[in-house]
Amino acid sequence: MKKILVVEDDRDLNRGISFFFEKEGYQATQAFNLIEAKKVLNLNTFEFIMLDLNLPDGNGLLLCKEIRENSDVPIIILTARDLEIDEVIGLESGADDYITKPFSLSVLNARVSAVLRRKSRKEAEEVLITNGIRINKKTMKISKDGTDIDCSITEFKILCYLAENKNQVLLKNQMLENIWDKESKFVDENTLPVNIRRLRKKVEDDPGNPKYIRTIHGLGYLWREE
Asked: Do 205 and 114 belong to one domain?
């Protein structure tokens, strides 16, 4: 069940929003000021945050900025401030959307769904999964069947490039240009095959008889997805 946090000092509105989203299948936590919000954020993780700006003990924008320093959790600002500059400041502070009061709960629900869809698409773009290997491009971490794999930055770049172009023959010069950029002309010709061998030892079940990183003799390499 997705957990959401509603930070709103109007108790009736807070309860109304929380009740509505609980009926939609969410688990809602209520906070009525900054102190309460920070307390629950220190103890829990949420899939979504709805944040009022005018809180009795401070400005919700400050909390938005603090959250964004450590988390990419979606945030929708709920506020009576309807000036364009307020919306710009809110979005620049890290909010994913900005809704002015009064608003309908059905519109709020649609906005929440839209933000979550965008986040889901972004996460899908950041993570590659192929042959039981998970490649997280954002954190630069690789795991195979749930076990983390230690690799160098160069090995990570090679694996990403191969996986992003699965089942395609990648020429050696093409790989050099994309992995080492313009500096490829200064790279030793053995650098690519050496890193390929190291990578095979980490991702192949039998590095001596590789199934995934295939050498296409005279041309380059291919990532075979089974």
From this structure: no
